[in-house]
């Protein structure tokens, strides 16, 4: 297999500020506007400059795990100290996870200890996405990551090497109204682009440095850097 998930990219008005925030929360190594994982996550986090302000809830967010209630409180406190904030996205008072946002409003959750679904995951437990069952199947085939959940139109995949799960919550989900601020950046060969199209992706255009812009079956933009 030649196609790999190289990075999860966030649009950012101040990429260096967000890189510093997330490096502090995750304990990852910053390399300019990119964070290099310090665990088995397997992909980078990259912040890409944009002048556009965030206006809607992201379709994807990180779920961070906790080993204890004290550990959960420590993670929340660290995020707030670094410039994050607590937000209300409609969660009920019975919810045990804590919903936060980074300094530019990108949502993420600090999950309560004892969560069975993320029990064998590391600190970055999941990238939780709004999306259809179809798009979960697409990404499972595209990355050749097995499905680890497929029930009630909810899907999840995970690298055979471990790391976070990527999940899609199924309907109902918000309609796509603008370019996604959270996107996948892949690396592969030219035949991988054709294979992605055969699986249901759409080719949108070509950028610099051998980069092919594409969209998955739900219309979520992603890029493939083609080498060789």
Automatic annotation (TrEMBL):
InterPro entries per record: Glyas_Bleomycin-R_OHBP_Dase (IPR029068), Glyoxalase_6 (IPR041581)
Q: Show where the Glyoxalase-like domain sits.
A: 7-111, 127-225
Tell me the Pfam families matching this sequence: Glyoxalase_6 (PF18029)
Which residue positions does the secretion signal occupy?
none
Query: Can you tell which superkingdom this protein's organism belongs to?
Result: Bacteria
Q: Which PANTHER family match?
A: CONSERVED PROTEIN, HYPOTHETICAL FUSION PROTEIN
Q: What is this protein called?
A: Bleomycin resistance protein
Native source organism of the sequence: Amycolatopsis orientalis (Nocardia orientalis)
């Amino acid at each position: 297999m030649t196609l790999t998930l190289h990075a999860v990219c966030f649009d950012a008005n101040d990429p260096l500020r967000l890189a510093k925030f997330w490096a502090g929360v995750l304990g990852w190594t910053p390399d300019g506007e990119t964070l290099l994982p310090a665990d088995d996550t397997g992909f980078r986090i990259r912040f890409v400059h944009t002048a556009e302000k965030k206006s809607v809830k992201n379709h994807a967010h990180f779920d961070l795990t906790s080993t204890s209630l004290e550990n959960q409180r420590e993670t929340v406190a660290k995020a707030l100290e670094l410039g994050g904030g607590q937000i209300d996205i409609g969660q009920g008072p019975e919810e045990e996870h804590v919903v936060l946002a980074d300094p530019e409003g990108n949502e993420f959750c600090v999950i309560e200890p004892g969560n069975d679904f993320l029990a064998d995951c590391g600190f970055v437990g999941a990238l939780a996405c709004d999306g259809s069952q179809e798009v979960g199947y697409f990404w499972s085939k595209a990355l050749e990551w097995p499905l680890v959940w497929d029930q009630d139109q909810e899907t999840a995949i995970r690298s055979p090497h471990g790391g976070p799960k990527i999940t899609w919550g199924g309907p109902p989900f918000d309609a796509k109204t603008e370019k996604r601020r959270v996107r996948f950046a892949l690396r592969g060969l030219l035949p991988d682009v054709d294979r992605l199209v055969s699986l249901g992706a759409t080719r949108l255009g070509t950028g610099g440095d051998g980069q092919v812009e594409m969209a998955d079956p739900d219309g979520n933009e992603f890029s493939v850097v083609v080498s060789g």
